[in-house]
Specification:
This protein is mostly helical. It is built from 9 helices and no strands.
Length: 187
């Protein structure tokens, strides 16, 4: 019994010290950096394929955006984006394109982090739906939870993408963030 109590005290001492050292700064910063190091450039590069390269076209989703986000709608309109109704389709494409640019950057710098992370979770959910419903990906790409294959592009990868975002939604960006600098609640 004495050995068990010593082991329990040692355990409590080690992990309470780690908890105290990490404080409020570590997990928020780590979640933002993990998400950003894995996905920031992925989303920025994806968004860049949806807009033009020169001003003002860099601010306006083009035909590529419609073909990527709503391929069946674009095909039904013979890829003439001027004939696609703004509501709801144009609005979806505009919001999706701007979200793909802005939300990952906001997460990285810790600005309105909870809202940006919640928006990014919604974006990933919509992106997943579009990939399955409109891009016709196969079962091996979709995968399944609790299967033996650990690297399906949708169920496994996007679940891992979501974990740091869920943390940020629930706990905020942490003390090393613009949210903290501007006096926003960080946790």
């Amino acid at each position: 019994m004495a050995v068990f109590k010593i082991a329990q005290r040692l355990h409590d001492l080690v992990f309470s010290t780690l908890n105290r050292l990490a404080g409020r700064w570590f997990l928020g910063l780590a979640s933002r950096l993990v998400f950003s190091s894995v996905l920031l450039m992925y989303f920025i590069n994806s968004a860049r394929t949806k807009v033009g390269s020169d001003f003002p076209d860099v601010l306006i989703p083009g035909s590529g955006a419609y073909m990527q986000i709503l391929p069946t709608v674009a095909a039904a309109h013979d890829y003439d984006i001027d004939t696609i109704p703004f509501l709801p389709y144009g609005l979806m494409v505009h919001l999706g394109t701007y979200a793909e640019f802005l939300l990952p950057v906001m997460i990285l710098i810790g600005l309105f982090t909870r809202a940006a992370s919640l928006g990014m979770l919604g974006f990933i959910a919509v992106m997943t739906y579009v990939d399955i419903a409109f891009h016709g990906v196969g079962a091996e790409t979709i995968g399944a939870f609790f299967d033996r294959i650990q690297d399906s592009a949708i169920s496994d990868q996007r679940l891992l993408w979501s974990l740091p975002l869920i943390y940020l939604v629930l706990h905020g960006a942490g003390t090393i963030s613009l949210d903290r600098l501007f006096g926003r609640k960080t946790g």
